[in-house]
Design a protein that fits this description.
The protein is of the alpha+beta class and about 220 residues long. It has three helices and four strands. It has helices at about 20-40, 55-60, 150-155; strands at about 115, 145-150, 170-180, 185-190. Strands 1-2-3-4 form a four-stranded antiparallel β-sheet. The radius of gyration is 16 Å and the shape is globular. The two termini are about 15 Å apart. The relative contact order is 0.16.
Length: about 220
């Protein structure tokens, strides 16, 4: 796989009521390039050095932002305006970390981010499958369908753009980026189990869905 051309990624202030197209453009120009640049500089991988690499990845890629030497805890690049989920309600009880207020992007345990990296251990009891964590990009078999970075809500089976239900529901649509660099607004499969045990990120979808988690 060819290396991405180095570019400077600038912080963009998203509009209060972000449209789906704005979220897709943000992934095209910011989140995905940052992750690819980091991988290019680190042996073609995002290393698995912590069980929470899915959120910790943000600290690795911050240096690729033009922040004038500063790395603030919050910045617009990692915030989706559709991320206004009520973490003081039932959703907040799904997590062991204290949660409150509105938005995953306002929680310290997400590193104040609306987005997560596909690096999760123990998916479907397969401890050897870490998604894209420690997986060389060049070795990914299906780059078009293997998810790279996506909205937190997508990994849980929620949707901020098409909120037909306040909690999880089948085919909740989310913006996701993929190893080949493209970004899509796709349906997420939900197994019907309410709460964290039913999070879409914990299992592969059946045939007919546009994504997969494993890079194998």
């Amino acid at each position: 796989m060819s290396k991405i051309i180095r570019v400077e990624v600038f912080q963009v202030d998203l509009k209060p009521h972000v449209q789906r197209g704005d979220a897709i453009q943000s992934f095209h120009t910011q989140e995905t390039p940052m992750v690819r640049l980091y991988a290019d500089d680190h042996g073609d991988v995002i290393g698995f050095y912590t069980n929470t690499i899915y959120f910790d990845y943000k600290e690795n890629v911050l240096s690729y932002l033009n922040l004038g030497g500063k790395s603030p805890a919050t910045n617009a690049v990692f915030v989706c305006a559709a991320d206004d989920f009520d973490l003081s309600g039932p959703i907040g009880t799904w997590f062991s970390d204290p949660s409150s207020g509105r938005g995953f992007c306002r929680q310290p345990w997400t590193h104040f981010s609306s987005y997560w990296f596909n690096g999760l251990s123990g998916r479907e009891s397969n401890t050897n499958d870490l998604g894209m964590a420690s997986k060389p990009f060049a070795n990914v078999r299906d780059t078009v369908r293997t998810e790279l970075v996506g909205e937190d809500s997508g990994g849980l089976g929620l949707s901020g753009h098409d909120r037909r239900q306040p909690l999880q529901f089948q085919d909740a649509r989310n913006v996701m980026s993929f190893v080949d660099g493209h970004v899509s607004y796709i349906k997420m499969y939900w197994n019907g189990t309410t709460g964290l045990d039913g999070a879409s990120a914990l299992y592969e979808p059946p045939e007919g869905y546009e994504y997969k988690w494993t890079g194998n």
